[in-house]
């Protein structure tokens, strides 16, 4: 046996006061350093996140404004879709003559001009019928002979969208002769009255000046800005659009295209560190806000110096306090250590005395409570283990009832003599299953399905024995079958119902066994319509002291009493669960068992 070396102290001090002072100093130094650095980083991070959140809200507001603007344009397209003159003019089934055609064109053109009069942001309104007819906001619509309608992207996309609005990328609109405007086109296919057949395409050309005004007013710091791209990566708006087209400036277009709405990603290159905030619109555009890190935190140096100042002051004060506190802590700690060693040796009657009204005094008070609790818990554990062993022993004794076995075998012999072979097989099989469940010792908890089968086999045997006196009903909800219950929990109550409730009844009686879920708990009920009990008999059931054998409800002459079954349930599941009995003389008895849901 090797000699153990004495425990080497972590600190090279013999005095508790010196050790505590040194430990506190090191702990305070590390804590303040780590806390200051973490607080600084958190402050910087918080400012950045708040700024990013502010930018995200701005992007959402811009998104809302642009969406509202586009919705207004869609409402104009709905106006064209619902206008009878427009629908009739482009319909392939109408019979408008050349003399009437001009009348329809004038009415439609007047309608479009009225819209343009109230909306200066719209460059033009046009309708292109598949029947070859064209009408616009102009009195006379002159189509550019060199512009092929089917080559226009807005026209193809509208036909492909099947009645939904399509918003194009910025482009030069050349469909009207001698006009070349830089616009964004909103186009939509107009349907026939059946809602399926397309009759033409409605076109709204929007001036880019409105979108430019919306975006140019947004302030994201000194250098921050925002831009808009469509699904294909084409730039709809950018404050430095000419530089990008000239390849003198680049943007993270590919990352923006792949980023979902609400994404924030950071880029750090020769232009500086900056964050991109992406917002998707309902019509396929992406609104992007770009903010530079230096703009987000303008007073970063001031924050750093403030944290250093406060950290240094806190460190000095904390070191002085640690020396004073360690001096007062040393004496009561020794007393507490002495009493703890006494408890370690097994003396649970030890009570430490610390009069200081500080944390050490509270620790001493808590120590006294803990010792008392440990002593009480040890006594409770001993008592609980004794009760558990008694319950397990009584359960083992009650698993095989010789009297029940004798009567059952006697019934089998009688059936065999009467050549009732099917009944013999049925009763023998039920008895085998019954005892197989009874002698299983692998676990105390079994599934409710197993206990339901056990009680069904038991009632089947009793039914064959007392056919003229007994009827039974077993009703278990399927939903509770996978949950756990104590093994052979219901048999004592069913047997009591038969032997003490129905056997002496002059006519046939019924035992009903139910199982269901209620308020998150598992509830079993064993009910009979037998003789019932008086209030005095019911009160004596709960007394643990022995009572006359003819009035004790047990599963066998030496079995488990109802009181012990109730204690067994409380032992495994807790004091809030157990057995309740309701009985009326000459009416019957209902036993309710409540247990928790155990998977």
Automatic annotation (TrEMBL):
It catalyses: ATP + protein L-histidine = ADP + protein N-phospho-L-histidine. It holds the Pfam family His_kinase. The chain crosses the membrane at residues 20-40, 307-325. GO terms for cellular component: plasma membrane. This is histidine kinase. Gene3D superfamilies: 6.10.340.10, Histidine kinase-like ATPase, C-terminal domain (3.30.565.10), PAS domain (3.30.450.20). Residues 327-379 form the HAMP domain. The keyword Flavoprotein does not apply. Residues 486-599 form the Histidine kinase domain. It comes from Paenibacillus taihuensis. It is a multi-pass membrane protein. Keywords: ATP-binding, Cell membrane, Kinase, Membrane, Nucleotide-binding, Phosphoprotein, Transferase, Transmembrane, Transmembrane helix, Two-component regulatory system. Its EC number is 2.7.13.3. GO terms for molecular function: ATP binding; phosphorelay sensor kinase activity. The keyword Endoplasmic reticulum does not apply. It comes from the Bacteria. PANTHER family: SENSOR HISTIDINE KINASE YPDA (PTHR34220). CDD domains: HAMP, PDC1_HK_sensor, PDC2_MCP_like. It is found in: Cell membrane.
């Amino acid at each position: 046996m090797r000699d153990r070396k004495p425990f080497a102290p972590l600190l090279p001090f013999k005095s508790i006061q010196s050790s505590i002072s040194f430990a506190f100093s090191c702990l305070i130094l590390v804590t303040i350093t780590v806390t200051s650095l973490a607080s600084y980083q958190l402050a910087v991070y918080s400012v950045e996140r708040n700024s990013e959140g502010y930018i995200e809200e701005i992007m959402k507001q811009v998104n809302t404004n642009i969406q509202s603007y586009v919705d207004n344009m869609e409402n104009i397209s709905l106006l064209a879709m619902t206008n009878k003159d427009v629908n009739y003019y482009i319909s392939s089934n109408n019979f408008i003559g050349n003399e009437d055609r001009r009348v329809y064109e004038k009415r439609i053109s007047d309608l479009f001009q009225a819209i343009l009069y109230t909306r200066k942001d719209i460059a033009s309104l046009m309708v292109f019928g598949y029947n070859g007819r064209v009408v616009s906001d102009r009195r006379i619509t002159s189509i550019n002979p060199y512009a092929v309608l089917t080559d226009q992207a807005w026209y193809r996309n509208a036909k492909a969208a099947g009645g939904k609005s399509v918003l194009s990328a910025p482009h030069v609109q050349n469909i009207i002769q001698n006009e070349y405007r830089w616009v964004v086109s909103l186009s939509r296919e107009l349907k026939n009255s059946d809602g399926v057949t397309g009759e033409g395409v409605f076109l709204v050309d929007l001036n880019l000046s409105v979108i430019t005004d919306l975006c140019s007013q947004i302030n994201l710091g000194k250098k921050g800005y925002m831009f808009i791209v469509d699904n294909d990566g084409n730039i709809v708006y950018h404050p430095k659009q000419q530089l990008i087209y000239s390849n003198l400036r680049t943007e993270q277009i590919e990352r923006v295209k792949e980023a979902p709405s609400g994404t924030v990603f950071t880029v750090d290159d020769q232009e500086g560190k900056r964050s991109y905030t992406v917002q998707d619109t309902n019509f396929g555009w992406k609104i992007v806000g770009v903010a530079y890190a230096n703009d987000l935190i303008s007073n970063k140096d001031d924050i750093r110096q403030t944290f250093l100042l406060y950290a240094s002051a806190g460190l000095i004060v904390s070191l002085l306090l640690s020396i004073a506190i360690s001096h007062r802590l040393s004496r009561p700690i020794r007393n507490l250590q002495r009493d703890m060693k006494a408890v370690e040796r097994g003396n649970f009657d030890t009570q430490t005395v610390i009069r200081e009204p500080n944390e050490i005094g509270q620790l001493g008070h808590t120590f006294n409570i803990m010792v008392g609790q440990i002593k009480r818990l040890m006594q409770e554990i001993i008592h609980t283990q004794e009760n558990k062993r008694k319950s397990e022993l009584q359960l083992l004794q009650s698993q095989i009832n010789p009297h029940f076995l004798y009567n059952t075998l006697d019934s089998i012999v009688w059936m065999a003599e009467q050549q009732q072979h099917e009944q013999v097989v049925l009763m023998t099989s039920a008895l085998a299953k019954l005892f197989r469940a009874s002698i299983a010792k692998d676990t105390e908890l079994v599934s409710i399905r197993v206990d339901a089968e056990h009680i069904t086999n038991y009632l089947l045997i009793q039914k064959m024995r007392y056919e003229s006196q007994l009827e039974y009903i077993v009703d278990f909800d399927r939903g509770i079958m996978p949950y756990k219950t104590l093994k052979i929990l219901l048999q004592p109550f069913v047997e009591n119902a038969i032997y003490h409730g129905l056997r002496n009844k002059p006519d046939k009686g019924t035992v009903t066994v139910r199982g269901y879920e209620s308020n998150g708990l598992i509830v079993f009920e064993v009910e009979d319509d037998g003789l019932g009990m008086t209030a005095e008999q019911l009160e004596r059931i709960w007394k643990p002291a022995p009572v006359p054998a003819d009035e004790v409800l047990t599963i066998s002459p030496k079995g488990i009493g109802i009181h012990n079954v109730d204690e067994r349930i409380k032992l495994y599941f807790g004091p809030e669960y157990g057995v309740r009995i309701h009985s009326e003389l000459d009416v019957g008895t209902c036993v309710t068992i409540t247990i928790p849901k155990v998977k």
